[in-house]
From TrEMBL:
The lineage of its organism: Eukaryota, Metazoa, Spiralia, Lophotrochozoa, Mollusca. It comes from the Eukaryota. InterPro entries: ABC2_TM, ABCG_transporters. The keyword Transmembrane helix applies. The keyword Cell division does not apply. This is WHT.
Amino acid sequence: MCLFRFAASRIQQFFIVLWRSWLTVIRDPASLKLRALQTIMISLVFGLIYLRQNLDQEGVMNINGFLFILVTNMSFSSQFIVINIFPMEIPVFQREYDSKLYSIEIYFLCKTLADIPFQILFPFIFITIDYWMIGLYDDVSKYLIACGIVILVSNVAASFGYMVSCIARTVTAALALAPPLMIPLMIFGGIFVNNKSIPSYFVWLKYLSWFKYATEILTVDQWIDVKNITCNEEPCIQFYNSLFIIYLSIYLSIYLSIYLSIYVCLSFRIYSLLYGYIT
């Protein structure tokens, strides 16, 4: 940690850098409009693909597929939005840091805080459109839980993007590094590979996978109170109470998954900050 004096106090540094970071975001209305248009367009496409699902065997498969695609889309889009932030500003930051205008942690904190309102707004718009178009569980509390989880996913993925951008140092390197780092986390998200069949040397990856936690929470949120699912043909999985969730191997509680997702989010951001100190 740097021990030399800065030109302003910590509080002054914080508010000045935060205000400048916020102005940097809102002074690019074209980018914000593009993000809004992209959010609405993709959510409408998903909504039309999975429009008004019925509670039968086909509907169950479609809804579960949508929940995982939702987490995946939100993760990749949120990551790539922030991945170029630090590499693009390294020259300016280095010059101002050497001039003792502000500290590393103040700069990092303010840059990440400035984008949080949009990491809340756009995921909220996305899930609000799709939740009612697709016909997920018709309950306000379930809808609010889904909104909270999608917003959390967006912020976890953004934290991962910040970490990658701090490590990569250039936009080109960040764009090349991000997919191979994120794809293993997606693979171990509980859909592509059964938890019991994950090789022992890769088990640790599933605990870092917010895909796993978010998909579990959204699936529990959708199905925990469903009492009956229509079977159109035999054989049919017997369904009562929460047996469906057991068949999907969902063992973590909602609260534990939320806590773990928050922990992963904070871990990525703390690691990004520490990497900034080291380099």
